[in-house]
Design brief:
Blueprint: E1 13-15, H1 41-56, E2 60-62, E3 67-69, H2 71-74, H3 76-86, E4 93-97, H4 105-108, H5 115-121, H6 150-163, H7 166-170, E5 173-177, E6 182-184, E7 190-191, H8 198-219, E8 223-227, H9 229-241, E9 247-251, H10 265-275, H11 278-286
Parallel strand pairs: 4-5, 4-8, 8-9
Antiparallel strand pairs: 1-2, 3-6, 6-7
Helix pairs in contact: 1-3, 1-8, 8-9
Length: 291
């Protein structure tokens, strides 16, 4: 990680913007009330995300962070398309990732959003803009991105094979990320939240925890499944502290940085979801049952 130690001002910090920014739809600056905050689950879900965006803009991050992307701002169009299509409010299971990957949600606005899966299977359309400060090696090309994100390809590929059509998966499940931000070092290396400075990480995740509790209440799910141990632990702690009555479990993360996942993530995930009763839920839908 020597590239991360290029000469910079020791006091340099990245700030997310003006804390006086209005709470609005990033695409058209519509007041949250126009999203139907007291209406559909998808509208209330989006409202919670917009509120989180406003709080996140007030945060500052120092080294090793040099670049911060928020796809809930520049990829709001495609993200909203995903939520509008698939957030129902009567789903039983929420799969929870940690934060976007550089070739997944960072490009598409969809959690675990590997481009091919998002376009070909989820049928998401829309415009994707660009973050205000891009790393030259981590350009945002949106749905035209040709780089595949392994985690997303494994995740959505597994459910595509199991369910056939998206509607069969989303009848009972939804997918969300705890944190919408992606962090990069000076070299363009992806930095996960655990790699941030402790005080900055804690401030970030505290806000994300609050938003998670809000969206879980909006969705009314009975189970949250953390994809990866960090997301699972964070969800369990946050939801318990807020008194939200929901079961929290976990499955292995499909990341290629995880040696176990590279040995056959789909089989591991299938076995774990069978233990949790989720496979039977989805299989009954795929087989034409009432679910």
């Amino acid at each position: 990680m020597s590239d991360d130690k290029e000469s910079v001002e020791e006091t340099a910090e990245l700030n997310f913007g003006d804390d006086r920014s209005p709470l609005c739809d990033p695409k058209g600056c519509y007041p949250v009330s126009l999203l139907g905050g007291n209406g559909t689950p998808s509208a209330r879900f989006l409202q919670a995300e917009l509120e989180l965006n406003t709080h996140l803009r007030r945060l500052s991050f120092s080294e090793p962070v040099r670049y911060i992307y928020n796809p809930l701002e520049y990829a709001w169009d495609t993200h909203r398309s995903y939520v509008d299509q698939y957030c129902r409010g009567d789903q039983k299971v929420l799969f929870l990732g940690m934060n976007p990957g550089p070739f997944g949600m960072a490009q598409t606005g969809v959690p675990f959003g590997e481009v091919k899966s998002v376009v070909d299977w989820l049928k998401i359309t829309g415009e994707v803009g660009r973050p205000p400060n891009e790393h030259p090696k981590r350009r945002i090309t949106g749905l035209a991105c040709t780089q595949s994100e392994v985690s997303g390809a494994r995740f959505w590929g597994f459910f595509r094979k199991l369910c056939g059509e998206p509607v069969q998966f989303f009848q009972h499940c939804f997918v969300h990320n705890l944190c919408p931000l992606i962090f990069m070092s000076a070299s363009g290396k992806n930095l996960t939240p655990p790699e941030l400075l402790a005080a900055e990480r804690d401030a970030l995740l505290k806000l994300c925890d609050i938003a998670l509790c809000q969206v879980v209440k909006v969705l009314g799910v009975s189970m949250v499944i953390g994809v990866g141990r960090v997301a699972e632990q964070r969800a369990r702690r946050a939801l318990a502290a807020d008194g939200v009555d929901v079961r929290v479990e976990g499955i292995m993360h499909p990341s290629p940085r995880n040696p176990q996942a590279n040995k056959g993530w789909a089989e591991v995930a299938k076995a774990r979801l069978s233990e949790l009763g989720v496979m039977s839920l989805l299989s009954s839908v795929a087989d034409g049952g009432s679910g």
